[in-house]
Write a structure and sequence with these properties.
Elements (H helix, E strand, L loop, with lengths): L3 E4 L2 E3 L5 E7 L8 E7 L6 E7 L4 E3 L7 E6 L4 E6 L8 E9 L1 E4 L3 E5 L2
Parallel strand pairs: 2-11
Antiparallel strand pairs: 1-3, 3-8, 4-5, 4-9, 5-6, 7-8, 9-10, 9-11
Length: about 110
């Protein structure tokens, strides 16, 4: 079992920044893939960014150049630095970990609004 706890969401103005953090209850060394999905009201959940056990990263086109995913294996955390935020980034952001099974955090709300 992997328990994931997110933090760092909130309300920010367009153009602002937020940093999401996901803390795992187990060592993340060797976990196949970790990252972030988001779900806006009335929309399907979409993959925002992921990082593999080898350190490869992937981003959805809409956040490339603005978001950066990183991990700290020693602290068992994965972070998502979000810059130049737009209103369309408003969503609940979920951390996930894939290791045989998919594990999910409880979600954290990100609202981009003036």
């Amino acid at each position: 079992q992997v328990q994931l706890t997110e933090s760092g969401g909130g309300l920010v103005q367009p153009g602002g920044s937020l940093r999401l953090s996901c803390s795992a209850s187990v060592s993340i060394f060797g976990i196949w893939s970790m990252g972030w999905y988001r779900q806006a009201p009335g929309k399907q959940r979409e993959l925002v960014a992921r990082i593999t056990s080898g350190g490869d990263t992937h981003y959805v086109d809409s956040v490339k150049g603005r978001f950066t995913i990183s991990r700290d294996i020693a602290k068992n955390t994965v972070a998502l630095q979000m810059n130049s935020l737009k209103p369309e980034d408003t969503a609940v952001y979920y951390c996930y970990a894939l290791q045989v099974h998919n594990y999910w955090g409880q979600g954290t709300q990100v609202t981009v609004s003036s």
